[in-house]
Amino acid sequence: MTFLTIKDISKRYGPVLALDRIDLDVVAGSRTAIVGPSGSGKTTLLRIIAGFEQPDVGQVVLEGETLADGPAIVPAHRRGIGIVSQDGALFPHLSVADNIGFGMERGTPNRETLIHDLVDMVELDRTMLDRRPHQLSGGQQQRVALARALARKPRLMLLDEPFSALDTGLRENMRKAVSRVLQNAGITAILVTHDQAEALSFADQVAVLRDGRLVQAGTPQTLYLNPVDRETATFLGDAILMQAEVADGFADCLLGRIEADTKDRRGRADIMLRPEQLRLTAMIEGPEPLQTCSAKVVDVEFGGAVCAVTLALGGAPLVVKSSGVGLPAVGSTVQVAVLGKAHVFKAVAS
């Protein structure tokens, strides 16, 4: 069931068109990630949903209630929307308990019990309730900010790059913890992030913005394996892009004849493979089977669990991701096997 509808939203700052006719639906109880390069409009869109900005045109409808219809908007404090920002925005002079309690209405009965329940929900130790924000780690501060936002029992939670200031390992742990808390509470969430891997792992739906336009929206798997264009493909991760002749479910390219999602396409086309779709093995005597070719190793970059092996293929370098175990030697010849199908980009209208 559609929980949030964003319809035909546009926003201009003077001569700059920040958002251009954005349409997006969010399902109840789901997690949506909005990603895009700097200046793509993702933060502007989040602020319009929150009620901090007015759209020039378009509508924002939450659970059947129109929150924005062009410049006519419902104020932010009446929307029932929680928000967690990058820095947490905790009050430095208040304790953890008072920071969390600040999100509650005055005179809330059983206030102390509710604060304890929220601390448990965000997986913090109750012994931290008397501490001040400067006595907490970055991850602990973000958990307090999340608890404060949850205290208002929001219909929708907005997360504005809440993990970007954290160390890499802590970011992953916090992302999983926040996802778990929101899922257990049954709260619909929208995350804005510049980290593509974070978006793919956190969300049920990913929306890619570019130059103020919604380029593509769908499941993480769909966007990663079937991006709408080359720019989206490379934005969401490493990609092997090449030209091929496509027809009848196959593509003839530098890697030989491989399976491809050609549908009814025939002729010249751009195709994409993700580096992890290629597997390297020692050369086997005899004719090369379908979906394989041979190539010479020209460079090996060790990276632990995932290494980069550069191959010379048809005069062009090709980088393949490989396990750190059993890496081929520079100068050796290997067999390259292709797993799954190549993605064929749609023809560009002339």
TrEMBL record:
SUPFAM superfamilies: MOP-like (SSF50331), P-loop containing nucleoside triphosphate hydrolases (SSF52540). Keywords: ATP-binding, Cell membrane, Ion transport, Iron, Iron transport, Membrane, Nucleotide-binding, Transport. GO terms for cellular component: ATP-binding cassette (ABC) transporter complex. GO terms for molecular function: ABC-type ferric iron transporter activity; ATP binding; ATP hydrolysis activity. Residues 4-236 form the ABC transporter domain. GO terms for biological process: quaternary ammonium group transport. It comes from the Bacteria. InterPro entries: AAA+_ATPase, ABC_SmlMolc_Importer, ABC_transporter-like_ATP-bd, ABC_transporter-like_CS, ABC_transpr_FbpC, Mo/tungstate-bd_C_term_dom, P-loop_NTPase, Transp-assoc_OB_typ2. PROSITE patterns: ABC_TRANSPORTER_1 (PS00211), ABC_TRANSPORTER_2 (PS50893). The keyword Lyase does not apply. Belongs to the ABC transporter superfamily. This is ABC transporter ATP-binding protein. It comes from Rhizobium tubonense. The lineage of its organism: Bacteria, Pseudomonadati, Pseudomonadota, Alphaproteobacteria, Hyphomicrobiales.
